[in-house]
Amino acid sequence: MTATASEAAEAAEAVPAAAHFRFFEFEVLRTRRLGHSFLRVTFGGESLKDFRSGGFDQSLSLFLPPEGQEHTVLPSTDEDSWFGAWRGMPDEERPVMRSYTVREQRRAAEGADADELDIDFVLHGDTSPASRWAGRAVTGRRIMAIGPAVAENKSVRFQPPATADAIWMYADETALPAAAAILERLPDGTAVRAWFEVPHEDDRLALSAPAGAEITWIVSEGDGREQVLSALRSDESSASAAEAPYVWLAGEAGTVRATRRHFVQERSVDRRSVRFTGYWRLGASEEQLLAEAYAGKAPSEDPTSDL
Ligand SMILES: Cc1cc2nc3c(=O)[nH]c(=O)nc-3n(C[C@H](O)[C@H](O)[C@H](O)COP(=O)(O)OP(=O)(O)OC[C@H]3O[C@@H](n4cnc5c(N)ncnc54)[C@H](O)[C@@H]3O)c2cc1C
Which end of the chain is more exposed for a tag (fewer CB within 10 A), N or C? Predict the structure, then answer.
């Protein structure tokens, strides 16, 4: 029970890992526009007291109600049987499963009236289920989620080794919430070189990062892969002089693949030091990615074969 399509398929069969993950019910408390493309949805709910975000790029799976329904209803939240019950629902009634990032979890003791959790949704149109749901979210709407019950869980992918002498990052807008959460947890003194691709000038959000972090914003319209590669190739920053960088890449799968190739082939980074995740794929919904993963032919997050 983890975040990405391939992992969801894997998890359905490996439910013992469920000890680390469980179902939660979230209720929308409020929404706030952060930039041209970003909407922050703040959730509350009694079950949040058992939610244990591991921070950094902690992800979770949301179950959003189909069009016409206000709240998410699942036939089962039993660890052994939910997946089959959910897949067996008629298409028009089945909640849509989507992967998102915990931007921040706040405990009541940390200044919130009750436990709260923020998710930053990219609004990319009204025809895709998650983007549409977020764009219409109003206070009181309830959804279901599978999330961490323990802070150390495998949906925190950012795991730099102690030997890393710099953090290099690429994120598109869907991975900017994760990148922002990573940056604000890095200790001062960490050498950071980051490239963030967003669709609009106003999406260059204010970030809290270690002093001296070198961040390049790439404002792209549509497929910005070439713009990203060009920015990577013309890099002359001091942080790029690192000898043992840890590289974290996340965003559109094809661009992630291209950036990984750049770091491994053109900059000779040890491929074991590169953590990369396709957060979405141009032209494919998450159902399609899940179906491919289930059929065992997912392009997967490990495009090693392309190298
Ligand atoms: C681990 C993980 C963490 C993630 N965290 C976040 C997060 O915090 N915030 C966030 O916004 N997204 C996040 N994503 C990405 C998000 O899950 C996808 O963008 C998802 O496809 C959105 O679902 P949808 O129903 O809106 O679109 P879908 O129904 O899945 O896709 C419909 C169409 O829209 C296209 N599409 C999907 N996303 C985008 C986009 N952003 N821009 C343009 N076209 C798109 C698809 O290629 C497809 O053609 C994360 C993904 C993963 C795997």
Answer: C
Atom of ligand 1 nearest to the CA of 100: 5
Mutate to test the pocket of ligand 1, among 60, 131, 132 (most ligand atoms within 8 A of CB): 131
100 lines ligand 1 (CB under 6 A): yes
Is there an atom of ligand 1 within 6 Å of 118 CB? no
Cβ-in-10-Å burial (0-12, 13-18, 19+) of 24 comes to buried
pLDDT tens for the 307 residues of the chain, in order: 434 555 554 444 443 456 899 999 999 999 999 999 999 999 999 999 999 999 999 999 999 999 889 999 999 999 889 999 999 999 999 999 999 999 999 999 877 788 999 999 999 999 999 999 999 999 999 999 999 999 999 999 999 999 999 999 999 999 999 999 999 999 999 999 999 999 999 999 999 999 999 999 999 977 899 999 999 999 988 777 899 999 999 999 999 999 999 999 999 999 999 999 999 999 999 989 888 887 875 444 443 333 3
Cα–Cα distance for residue pair 164/211, rounded to 1 Å: 18
CB 174 near ligand 1, within 6 Å: yes
Please tell me if the CB atom of residue 158 comes closer than 6 angstroms to any atom of ligand 1. no
Tokens of 223: 């497929």
In sequence order, the 6+-apart residues with CB closer than 8 A to the CB of 103 are 40, 118, 119, 120, 177, 180, 181
All structural domains of the chain, each given as residue ranges with its CATH number in brackets, are 5-148 (2.40.30.10), 166-306 (3.40.50.80)
